[in-house]
Amino acid sequence: MHPSRESPYLLVGKSKMHGKGVFARTNIPKNKTLIEYTGEKISRAECFKRDAEQKGAFYVFELNKKWGVDGKTGGDAKYINHSCDPNCKYFRRNGKIWIRSIKNIKKGQEITYNYCADGQRKCKCGAKNCDGWM
Predict the structure, then answer these.
(1) Which of 5, 59, 99, 120 has its CA 20 to 30 A from that of 82?
(2) CA–CA separation, 91 vs 88, rounded Å?
(3) Rounded to 5 degrees, what are φ and ψ at 44?
């Protein structure tokens, strides 16, 4: 694992859920803003195009009805995996996307949020409440 360049609270490393993941570098309290989801700002039409091209690597994040952010061109937040029982939540403010803790998170625990996707991708989160799709 290596420290995130964008957040003193996070590490990036191999995930048991899917590929790379983001993990708590220290104990993190509830309601702590952890990292911005960064990348190229693209039109909604380009979002759909890139999402279709990525085949399993889900990095395009809707910013609003006109724009999205392609995390593939951004920082470490793109490695945060989905969970049906997340410990973080995303929020949008002033044209940016942020990830904030919604629970106390222990050092070493994987950081997750619910992608709120279209239900067409298989979910591998392993949560008790997981229905197998995201």
Answers:
(1) 5
(2) 10
(3) -60, -40
Q: Which two tokens stand for residue 92?
A: 């949008």
Count CB neighbours of 120 within 10 A. 7
In sequence order, the 6+-apart residues with CB closer than 8 A to the CB of 79 are 12, 15, 19, 20, 21, 22
CA distance 27 to 10: 10
Q: Which residues of the chain have pLDDT under 70?
A: 54-58, 117-119
Q: Is 125 helix (H, G, I), strand (E, B) or coil?
A: coil
pLDDT at 30: 98
For the record, the structure tokens of 11 come out as 């590490």
43: which 2 tokens?
Answer: 């039109």
| pLDDT recorded at residue 6 | 93
